[in-house]
Structure formats: C-alpha cells, structure tokens
Write a structure and sequence with these properties.
single chain; alpha/beta; Rossmann fold; 8 helices; about 15% strand
C-alpha cells in the first residue's frame, strides 16, 4: 500500500476482491490522476509482485497487517472501499482502527457483499479438488475468472493459490457482534448479483450510527467493471464533502 500524492486532500484506500491485487484499481488511479484524491490499494502476500510470499491464513492477520499500513495514512481524511471479500476486510479494518482509537475512515464504501451480521452460507469452494474444477466453480458462483486462466496452466497456479487462500478467509469468517461504526457507510451492488439480492445490501445500515445509502448498478457480481465510470462518479460525489 503506497501513497504518492503529497498534496491530496483525501485518501481512498481500496481492498481488492478475492484473488485480486493492487492492479485491480490501476484504472481508478488513472481516472483520479488529476484530482486531489490519493488512491492506495492493498497489496497482500501471494499475488502479483508478492506472489512468492505465503498468503495470509486468517482474516484477522490481514486486518492487523492493513491496520499497521493504514495508520500512518490517517493524517488526512480517509475513505475505505472494498469489493466482495475486500468489503469484509475494509469493514473489519475500520473496526480495528476504532479499537486503536484511530479516527479513520470518515467513509466506508462496501461493494458486492452482504451485510456481515447476516447468516452466511459456507459454499466450501475452497475445498474443491483440482485447479480447473475449482476455478470453474468460482466462475459459476461469482464470475470474474478470465477463461484464459482456466485454459492455461502457466497462469493458473498463482490465481488458484490466491483464490483458495482468500475464499478460506471469507468462507470461515465469523462475524463478532459489536457497536456500529460512527462513519458513514455507502453500499453498492449489481442488480443481478445473487450475492446481495433482496435486503442483503440494505442491511449494511445496521452497521453505522452515521448516514447510510445504498445503490444498485446494472450488472452482476462484477458490475464494477462495466459500470466503472458510473461507480467512480458516485464515489467522487461521496468524497466531495471530505475535500
């Protein structure tokens, strides 16, 4: 996680989805280049430039590591964004910083994830034997797995290792009841995403004593790829009061 805009007035700290690395947000960085918004993307072990490092084995370990990295970035207003697994991590990160009496984030943006207090179904995708059956099951459940990764053995190893590790974190995640956050929360999802169907997105309102909003975009679980411009416009509008 790196900071590169000393003059920025707000930091947008982004956590990728399962199997993802900081490159997931490369296009966002380019889109925000001319604005006083500094984007810092979480770079966890086991992917991209850190592919040779063992991936974390518990969600608490991820949150602890990110809390240490984010603490020095909290010298100006911060917003957190996380998609899917990243939403759960961003939420628990906000809780961890509160426990450390660090005043961040001012805004929590969660995407493609049901509210954490709702009953969760253990899909046990992490336990599927064989790389190809595993990737095909993940693609069927969530999408977001390029066909070329399934077809080419030289591309599968890193993706499978990162995905299995991240799905283990989310499928074994145990929500702990605690006081709602004070920061505002905005929740986003695709209107055809079965992961957040019904009230599963709106239920995030119970996790804050501050303001809450939710919005659905056209698309499935990875709606944010096709609706990137609309989502970024929405995020800019939410960040405006922090500038």
């Amino acid at each position: 996680m790196a900071a590169s805009k000393p003059g920025a007035r707000v930091r947008l700290i982004c956590v990728p989805h399962a199997g993802g690395g900081p490159s997931v947000y490369a296009a966002w960085t380019r889109e925000l280049a001319g604005e006083p918004i500094e984007l810092a993307a979480a770079h966890l072990p086991g992917r991209e430039a850190r592919a040779g490092e063992p991936p974390p084995t518990t969600l608490d370990a991820v949150v602890d590591a990110l809390a240490g990295a984010v603490e020095p970035l909290a010298d100006r207003p911060c917003a957190f964004f996380g998609h899917s697994k990243g939403a759960v991590v961003a939420f628990e990160l906000a809780r961890r910083l509160r426990a450390r009496r660090i005043d961040a984030p001012a805004l929590l943006l969660v995407s493609g994830a049901p509210a954490p207090q709702l009953p969760r179904v253990d899909r046990r995708l992490r336990s599927i034997d064989g790389d190809i059956p595993f990737l095909e099951a993940v693609a069927e459940a969530y999408g977001g797995v390029p066909r070329i990764v399934v077809e080419r053995a030289d591309l599968r190893g890193e993706m499978v290792a990162a995905l299995r590790a991240d799905l283990t974190l989310t499928e074994t995640y145990a929500y702990r009841d605690d006081a709602p956050l004070a920061c505002a929360i905005a929740a986003y999802g695709g209107d055809r995403d079965p992961i957040v169907e019904g009230d599963r997105l709106a239920a995030w309102r119970d996790q804050t004593t501050g303001s809450f909003s939710f919005r659905r975009f056209d698309g499935d679980h990875f709606y944010l790829n096709r609706a990137r411009d609309a989502l970024l416009a929405e995020i800019r509008s939410r960040l405006q009061p922090l500038l």
